[in-house]
Write a structure and sequence with these properties.
The chain has 469 residues and is of the alpha/beta class. The chain contains 12 helices and 13 strands. β5, α9 and β6 form a beta-alpha-beta unit. Bound molecules: pyridoxal-5'-phosphate.
Length: 469
């Protein structure tokens, strides 16, 4: 008769007649830092990694990131089918490049490129790559012009507000351009035309403006900056382009308020970036860069690569990349059309306004800015929380941590210079964040504050106040 011990050992070895949790792979340490000598069955590898990833936050409760976390099953199917296609192999996959160009056409139209303009664009990994490429092109044009005029071109600068994403600072450092970053002021968290005026000169390669800042979701004075630059060109002859960072806003504003002018309708707006993986409603990573006209992109920056049987013009920082998100972007544009995007963006704003009002009604929060233009909410704690029985030292960082214990991912941070003493919580409303979810979030916030009140009461029982009268 076989002993029970031998049976289990055999079973563990073979993994037969048991689930993956009866196999040896779950009871032995898994290889972490060295490539194992032998492999393991696919099911075991899948289960081990899948289980480990449970330690990550829940993507559906992630109100921190702008990035899309849900797509339709049909989009998922297209993505799965095209994961292996290298976008750069356009001789092998010419249709994928044609699809990219269709999207560029659609976006140029969405951003109101003039009918007769010879617009040009590219897909990128995200807005960061698109911004670097866009502003690099402006640096090139500025330098070519300066050289042609026999002028010094050794000190280029770029002007932007402190409300920009970190990629703008990266651009200045990586591409050796003087960074002229206008600090924020209390109550003024975006770039104004007046501040631009103080900072530009003949060496300014571009002004960067943001349609939906990462910090607060607000919008820079784009039209006012454009008017200023029109005047500057007339008066001083400096033709300074604007690059609009529409990472989140450029897929929202056209569907919410098509009369709002921020795009190619403004004469100095020469390039625009948008993240397909934000409100373009595609998973990471896809971004888009569109130039109003080919003439703003120097030929010198386009590399003709002789690759896999064809000549490939490239204007990108990387070489190989997946095709699936470019295809998924086209899926969304076909599937949703303007009407579908518009319905989603209006729903997002309804939820945003509802959540903002409900948060204010709790009495614990106030909005950084009462005017909500994009589906992004930045909130501060009310000053008088003590009156509610909340301990003085509670701050937004504590609330963010407590929310995380309940599964919600809501970041807390301080604003950039000169508003560092303002700390906010930021909530990004995404497509799959419903009104019901908004209620659940507020319920959890109320529970967090109730716990604080209870803690304070329990403490006061231990140490009764002397001042009992
Ligand atoms: C305003 C703005 N610009 C640029 C970026 C960078 O975008 P991406 O993550 O697509 O590279 C972000 C990301 O949040 C952003 O909010």
């Amino acid at each position: 008769m076989l002993s029970n011990k031998i049976n289990v050992k055999d079973m563990k070895k073979t993994g037969k007649n048991t689930s993956i949790y009866g196999s040896r792979y779950v009871s032995e340490p898994i290889p972490k830092y060295e490539i194992p000598e032998g492999g393991m069955p696919s099911k075991a590898a899948y289960q081990l990694i899948n289980d480990e990833l449970n330690l990550d936050g829940n993507i559906n409760l992630n109100l921190a990131s702008f990035v899309t976390t849900w797509m339709e099953p049909e989009a998922d199917m297209l993505i799965n089918q095209t994961n292996g296609k290298n976008f750069v192999d356009n001789d092998e996959y010419p249709q994928t490049e044609i699809i990219q160009n269709r999207v560029i056409n659609m976006l140029a139209g969405l951003f109101n490129a003039p009918e007769d303009s010879d617009f040009i664009g590219t897909s990128t990994i995200g807005s960061s790559e698109a911004i670097m490429l866009g502003v690099l092109a402006h640096k090139w044009s500025w330098r070519e012009k300066r050289k042609a005029e026999g002028k010094d071109s050794s000190n280029p600068n770029i002007v932007m507000g402190a409300d920009v994403h970190v990629v703008w600072e990266k651009f200045a450092k990586y591409f050796d351009v003087e960074l002229r970053m206008v600090p924020m002021e209390k109550g003024e968290y975006t770039l104004t035309a007046d501040k631009v005026k103080e900072n530009i000169d003949e060496n300014t390669i571009a002004v960067g403006v943001v349609l939906g800042t990462t910090f607060t979701g607000q919008i820079d004075q784009i039209e006012e900056v454009n008017d200023l630059l029109v005047k500057v060109k007339e008066e001083k002859g400096w033709d300074i382009p604007i690059h609009v960072d529409g990472a989140s806003g450029a897929f929202v504003m056209p569907f919410l308020d098509s009369d709002f002018k921020w795009d190619f309708r403004l004469s100095h707006v020469r390039s625009i970036n948008v993240s397909g993986h934000k409100y373009g409603l595609v998973y990471p990573g896809v971004g888009w860069l569109i130039f109003k006209d080919k003439k703003y992109l120097s030929d010198d920056l386009i590399f003709e690569v002789n690759y896999l049987g064809g000549i490939l013009p490239t204007f990108n920082l990387n070489f190989s990349k997946g095709s699936s998100m470019v295809i998924a972007q086209y899926y969304n544009l076909l599937r949703l059309g303007k009407e579908g995007y518009s319905n989603i963006m209006h729903n997002l704003m309804d939820t945003t306004i509802y959540l903002a009002d409900t948060l204010k009604d709790t009495g614990y929060f106030k909005l950084l800015d009462e005017e909500l233009i994009l589906p992004i909410i930045a909130i501060k704690l009310e000053d008088n929380l003590k009156d509610f029985g909340i301990p003085d030292e509670v701050d937004v960082f504590d609330i963010s941590r407590k929310l995380r214990e309940k599964g919600w991912l809501v970041p807390a941070y301080t604003l950039p210079a000169n508003a560092e003493d303002i700390a906010v919580l930021r909530i990004v409303i995404k497509e799959n964040f419903t009104r019901d979810m908004a209620d659940l979030l507020v319920q959890d916030l109320n529970n967090i504050f109730d716990e604080y009140k209870k803690d304070l009461k329990d403490d006061s029982k231990k140490e009764p106040s002397i001042n009992i009268f």
